[in-house]
């Protein structure tokens, strides 16, 4: 049940990022909400599996940059999720530039934090 809530929160945050950030668009033959749901699923799976390892490996540089490099790790996770979603499902999100992905990672982090606070889902 917690994974489904995480998936929905991520999908909502990705939807807001697609709506707000120029350079982030949905792709595929599906409707926009299907592409966002697929991308949210892939991003949730990546955040559970690969992201903790990437955070551990980037810990020294994150300490040196006072945590700012953590945003670069989030941006790289967006790129990996976009590549997997477009490669496997031919649907998802297209990222135009690194700058738009960077801003989208900030928007996704803020929106998911707000939605998790509203839902009371801050246990993980």
From TrEMBL:
<keyword id="KW-0812">Transmembrane</keyword>
<keyword id="KW-1133">Transmembrane helix</keyword>
<dbReference type="InterPro" id="IPR007165">
    <property type="entry name" value="Phage_holin_4_2"/>
</dbReference>
<protein>
    <recommendedName>
        <fullName>Phage holin family protein</fullName>
    </recommendedName>
</protein>
<dbReference type="Pfam" id="PF04020">
    <property type="entry name" value="Phage_holin_4_2"/>
</dbReference>
<feature type="transmembrane region" description="Helical">
    <location>
        <begin position="95"/>
        <end position="119"/>
    </location>
</feature>
<feature type="transmembrane region" description="Helical">
    <location>
        <begin position="57"/>
        <end position="83"/>
    </location>
</feature>
<feature type="transmembrane region" description="Helical">
    <location>
        <begin position="33"/>
        <end position="50"/>
    </location>
</feature>
<keyword id="KW-0472">Membrane</keyword>
């Amino acid at each position: 049940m917690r994974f489904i809530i995480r998936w929905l929160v991520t999908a909502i945050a990705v939807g807001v990022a697609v709506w707000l950030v120029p350079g982030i668009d949905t792709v595929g033959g599906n409707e926009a909400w299907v592409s966002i749901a697929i991308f949210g699923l892939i991003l949730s799976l990546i955040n559970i599996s690969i992201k903790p390892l990437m955070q551990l490996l980037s810990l020294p540089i994150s300490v040196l940059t006072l945590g700012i490099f953590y945003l670069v790790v989030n941006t790289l996770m967006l790129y990996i999720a976009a590549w997997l979603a477009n490669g496997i499902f031919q649907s998802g999100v297209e990222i135009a530039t690194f700058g738009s992905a960077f801003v989208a990672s900030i928007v996704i982090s803020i929106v998911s934090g707000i939605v998790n606070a509203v839902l009371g889902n801050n246990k993980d």
